[in-house]
Amino acid sequence: MRIIALDASTEQCAVALGDGAVWRERVEAAGQRHSELLLPMVQELLAQEGLALADLDGIAFGAGPGSFTGLRIACGVAQGLGLGTGLPIVGVPTLEAMAESARMRFGAARVIAALDARMHEAYLAAYEHDGKRWRTAIEPMAVKPADAPLPRGDGWIGAGGGFAAYPELRARLQPALAGCHEEIVPAAPAIGALALPRFAAGEGVAARDAAPLYVRQRVALTVAQRAAGQRL
Fold first, then answer.
1. How far apart, in whole angstroms, are the C-alpha atoms of residue 19 and residue 17?
2. Residue 232: pLDDT band by 50, 70, 90 thresholds?
3. CA angle 7, 213, 220 (to 5 degrees)
4. What architecture (CATH level 2) is domain 3-94+186-227?
5. What is the Cα gyration radius of the chain?
6. What are the pLDDT digits (tens) for 160-170?
7. Residue 135's beta-bridge partner residues?
8. Which fold would CATH assign to domain 95-181?
9. Where are the alpha helices (DSSP H) in the chain?
10. What confidence tens digit (pLDDT) does each residue in 44-78 have?
11. In this structure, are residues 10 and 123 in contact, taking their beta carbons and an 8 Å threshold?
C-alpha cells in the first residue's frame, strides 16, 4: 500500500510519499505560505517518483490540533485530491504524529506532545506505545501551562514547540519527564506511518467526510484582541 501524507499544522509545510518501509519527503519552512506550497510539493514528489495520484491507495493529512488556517488548508488539499480520484482519506491527530516522530527518532514509548496554541495555552496530549500502537493517556486538549495534567508514572519524553513556547509547561511536567525534544513536529512520514494501518482497516473516509480536529473551537479574535496583539 502506497499513500501520500500532508501536514500544514505548524510553520512547516510537509509532504511524504511512501509505503511504510520507505518515505520520500519534502519539507519547507512555510510561515504563512502553506496554501502556495502544499499542492506544488505534492505534484513535485509524485513527479520525482514517476507516479500519478491515481497510482496511490490513500491520502493522509495532519488533522489537528494546530494552526486553524493550516489545518483547513491541509484538509482542503486532501479533499480536493480525494474528490478528483476517489481515494480514501485519513485524518491523523497531529499530537499523536508527534509521539510517532519521537518514537521513530529516539525510540520513545511514552510521549507528552505539546504545541503552542497561542493565547498562553498549549495543545497537549500524552501517549504510550504498547509495542504495536499508541494508546492515549491524556486526551488532546488546550490548556494553560500551569494547569497541564500530569500523566501517571515517569519516564515520559516531552516533544514539541509547546515546551519551547512555555518554559513553565516543562516546569509543570518536570516530575514526569525523562527528557524533552522541543524540535519535534508532526512529521509527514509519521502521519503516513500512523495512517497506513487505518487505511488497511478500512477507516479511510470519502473526501466530503474529512474534517480537521480543532480541539479548541475558537477560530477568530475580536477587533480588540487583534489590536492587543493576540493570535490564534
1. 7
2. very low
3. 95
4. 2-Layer Sandwich (3.30)
5. 17
6. 999 999 999 99
7. 128
8. Nucleotidyltransferase; domain 5 (3.30.420)
9. 34-48, 68-85, 94-106, 161-165, 167-173, 188-200, 223-227
10. 999 999 999 999 999 999 999 999 999 999 999 99
11. no
CA 35 to chain centre: 17
Residue located via cell numbers 510517532: 100
Among 12, 225, 9, residue whose Cα is nearest residue 119: 225
Whether 192 shows a pLDDT value over 90: the answer reads yes
- What is the C-alpha to C-alpha distance for residues 188 and 124, in angstroms, rounded to an integer? 19
pTM, full prediction: 0.92
- The DSSP element (H or E) to which 135 belongs, if any, is strand 134-143
Task: Name the nearest CA neighbour of 204 among 119, 78, 64, 18.
Answer: 78
> Residue 227: which residues within 8 A CB-CB, separation 6 or more?
none
Residue 37, C-alpha cell as written in the block: 506550497
Locate 48 and state its grid cell: 520525482
Q: Give me the half-sphere count of Cα atoms (radius 13 Å) on the Cβ side of residue 36.
A: 6
